[in-house]
Design goal:
The protein has 339 residues and is of the alpha/beta class. Helix content is 38%, strand content 15%. The chain has two domains: 1-154 and 295-339, Isopropylmalate Dehydrogenase (3-Layer(aba) Sandwich), CATH 3.40.718; 156-293, 3-Layer(aba) Sandwich (Isopropylmalate Dehydrogenase), CATH 3.40.718.10.
Length: 339
């Protein structure tokens, strides 16, 4: 089987996605990166390289050309959207370029021409102004996968680093909506998906899941809220009955020190910040956003568009490099649909 490259999306063109893609390619040998290609506007990427003052030749072609070109030039697959956004200043070309790149990446990986999808950061506010109807990347990818395969996909967002892996069970919703959305079925289904994919993708034979409580002290047996007693506890019981090593609800304030982290493989948290604050404290520059529950591997840097430093040369590509390396590792365990 010939080597299949990774598909890397441009992300928000006015952000640091183009910068870190260019710099990651420059560090390809030192980082031992699997060949990848960028889905975007070749002329725009060449212009951003000039702005940054970096020597990155651009090789325009198809995904199949990427492995051969990668040693001497950054492979770029033209998505047919001309980008006019300047660093830090999104414009009317931003949303079409970002969305088209994501669509193409999913098409390529499901067709087997790419090994996995790696997505650069997007600006949700820019997408929303253009009529984007999904809460974020994760939900959009799930809908694209379902439309292509006809199989419903329930995406689960994992933030992974060597120090810690966390899963927010509810994601991009206001905090006051979390108790209403936190159902027994959602917690159990999320636990099943995490357990299954840690076996299939990470090769962990018996993954250990730690489920955080919603309330202080995990609810203190109902005296500080009944969600943990009525939802999280029964979910743990059901998961354990299915043979999954799950425990909780655990007080979130004592789950993330080094000794506690050594007792589990993934922490399932109730809401976005409960999960993301500890991993960003521990691994801000190298954590990876990984979507579980899809019929392909998708990773992303664990940071945003950073408009304030786009085009300055100050963007750190470490998280993107980690995302590219993790995508290649996981895809080797779970090959794309069409080899």
């Amino acid at each position: 089987m010939s080597l299949r490259p990774l598909a890397l999306t441009l992300g928000e063109p006015a952000g640091i996605g183009p910068d870190i893609a260019l710099i990651a390619w420059q560090r390809r040998a030192a980082s031992a990166l699997t060949p990848f290609y960028v889905l975007g506007d070749p002329a725009f990427l060449a212009a951003r390289a000039r702005t940054l003052g970096v020597d990155v030749p651009i090789a325009v072609g198809e995904p199949r050309d990427a492995p051969a070109a990668f040693a001497t030039a950054l492979p770029v697959v033209d998505i047919g959207v001309s980008v006019t956004a300047a660093p830090g200043r999104p414009d009317e070309s931003s949303a079409p370029a970002a969305i088209t790149a994501i669509r193409k990446a999913v098409e390529h990986v499901l067709a087997g021409t790419a090994h996995a999808a790696v997505t650069n950061p997007v600006a949700k506010s820019v997408l929303y102004k253009a009529g984007f109807e999904h809460p974020g990347h994760t939900e959009f990818l799930a809908d694209l996968a379902q439309a292509a395969t006809g199989i419903p996909a329930q995406p689960v967002m994992m933030l992974w680093s060597p120090e810690l892996a966390v899963v927010p069970i509810t994601i991009h919703i206001p905090l006051h909506d979390v108790p209403k959305r936190l159902t027994l079925d959602l917690v159990v289904t999320t636990g099943r998906i995490v357990a299954r994919e840690m076996v299939e993708k990470f090769g962990i034979a018996n993954p250990r899941l730690a489920l955080a409580g919603l309330n202080p002290h995990a609810g203190e047996e109902g005296t500080l809220g009944d969600e943990d007693r009525n939802i999280v506890g029964p979910a743990v019981t059901q998961l354990r009955a299915e043979g999954i090593d799950a425990r909780g609800p655990l007080p979130a304030d004592t789950m993330f020190h080094a000794g506690a982290r050594a007792t589990y493989d993934a922490a399932l948290c109730r809401y976005h910040d409960q999960a993301l604050i500890p991993i960003k404290m521990l691994a801000f520059d190298h954590a990876v956003n990984l979507t579980l529950g899809l019929p392909f591997v998708r990773t992303s840097p664990d940071h945003g568009t950073a408009f304030d430093i786009a085009g300055t040369g100050r963007a750190d590509p470490s998280s993107l490099i980690a995302a590219l390396k993790l995508a290649a590792k996981l895809a080797a365990r779970a090959p794309a649909a069409a080899a």
